Amino acid sequence: MTGVKGLSKRALAAMLAAALVIAGCGSGSGDDGPRTLKLWHYEGPDSAMGVAWAEAIKQFESTHPGVKVEFEEKGFEQIQKTAPMVLNSKDAPDVLEYNKGNATAGLLSRQGLLTDITDEVTKRGWDKQLSQNIQTTARYDERGVMGSGKWFGVPNYAEYVMAFYNKDMFAKQGIAVPTTIAELTAAMDKFVAAGITPLAVGGAEYPAHQIMYQLALSKADKGWVDRFQRYTGSVDFHDPAWTYGAETFADWVKKGYVSKDSAGVKAEDMGVSFMQGKHPIMITGTWWYGRLAAGIKDFQWGSFLWPGLTAGSAGNMWVVPQGSKNKDLAYDFIAITMSPQIQDKLRDAGGVPVADSGSPAASPQIKELTENFKTLSGGDRLAFYPDWPAPGYYDVQVSAVQKLITGTATPRQALDELAKPYQENLANVGK
Hints:
Layout: H1 2-22, E1 35-41, H2 48-63, E2 67-73, H3 76-86, E3 95-98, H4 102-110, H5 118-124, H6 126-129, H7 132-135, E4 139-140, E5 150-151, E6 154-155, E7 158-166, H8 167-172, H9 181-193, H10 208-217, H11 222-230, H12 240-254, H13 267-275, E8 281-285, H14 289-295, E9 301-305, E10 312-314, E11 317-319, H15 327-337, H16 340-348, H17 364-378, H18 393-406, H19 411-428
Parallel strand pairs: 1-2, 1-3
Antiparallel strand pairs: 3-11, 4-5, 6-11, 7-8, 7-9, 7-10
Helix pairs in contact: 2-15, 2-16, 10-12, 12-19, 18-19
Organism: Lentzea atacamensis
Keywords: Signal
Signal peptide: 1-23
C-alpha cells in the first residue's frame, strides 16, 4: 500500500502544479502571483495593425485566464534606435514587433539577442501559412543575412509602397491615373502648371528615400535587388539604376514636384497634408491605408501601383527576445495574430494579411489592396526597402536624400554617402 500511497502523492503534486499553470499562477520570473505577457509594438490604435493587435490581446486574455498582457506602445524610431540595448537588459519584453532586414532583425539575431524559433514555427505550422516570398524576411543565416537559415521572427502582415491620389484634384485637371513613369511625370507637370505641388513628401523621416529607391528600381531587375539586399554580388552605387534614381529625384525637386520645405517634414505631417487635400499624390506604404480611410472626409481618393519592381515585403514581425521570461505565452500570442479571425480583422481595417482566409473583403477598395499584393508577390516584384542592408542605414539614407531636397549635395555626392556605410558593413558580414 505504501507504493500506491506514494504514487498518489506524486500524482497529486503533478495535478496541483498543472492547476497552477492553468490558473496563471507563478510569473515567468518565478515570483508568486499572476503571469504577465510583456508586449511591445509601434502600431497606432487607429491603424489596421493596431486594431488587429488590440483584438488579439483581448482574445489572448480570454483564452489564458489569470494571465495579463502588459502592453506598451513604442515609437518606430524609438525601438529602431534602442532595441540592441534594451533587449540585452532585464527590461526586455516577452514579445515585440520589430523591423525586418539585415540591419535590424538580422543584426540582433547575429548578436544573440533573438530566440531561434524554428522548431516552434514548424510545430505550429506557420511555415505552411507563409509563402516563400514572405519567409525571406523571417529567416537569417549566421551572418545575419536574410533569406535562409533559422527563423527569428514571424511576419504579421504584408506591405508595399504605392501611390495614393486625390481623385477630385485629378478630375479637375483632367488627368487620368498614370500607369508609367512618363505618365506620372506628365501628370505632375500639369499640377505644377496649375500652381499645385504634386507630391506630399516627408523628408525628415520616410518616405523621401523610398521614393528615390522606387526611381532606381524602375531601371533595375531582381538580380540588382539581390546584390544590394542579400549581398549576392558587388554593388556599384553609380550604376545606371542608382544614378537615375538620385538624378531624377533631384530633378523632381527642381521641377517643383517635391517642395524644398519637405526636407523638414515628418511622415505624420506628410499624411495629414494629403488628408487635408493640399497635394494630389502621396507615394508611401500600404500601412497608411486604414488611416486615410478613416481620416479623409472631403474628397474621393484611390491608389495605383508603381510600375515594375516595388519596395515591399512581409511587414514587421513578431520576435521573441532571448531574455523573454514567458516564451510559451509569446508563442501563443503570435498564434492568435496568425489566426484567420485576426488576419481578417487586419484586412478589413485596411491592412494586408499574410495569411489569407479566403473570406470576402469588407469593401472593393480593401479587396484591391489585397489583390495588388498578390500581383506583386506572385510576379516576384517585391524589392524590400532601401535601408535594410546595413545597421544605421535608415538615418544615412534619410540624411542623403534630405540633401538632395535642400540642394546641399549633388546626386553623385548623395550616392557616395550611401556607398560608404554599405561597403563598411560588408566587412562585418564576411564579404
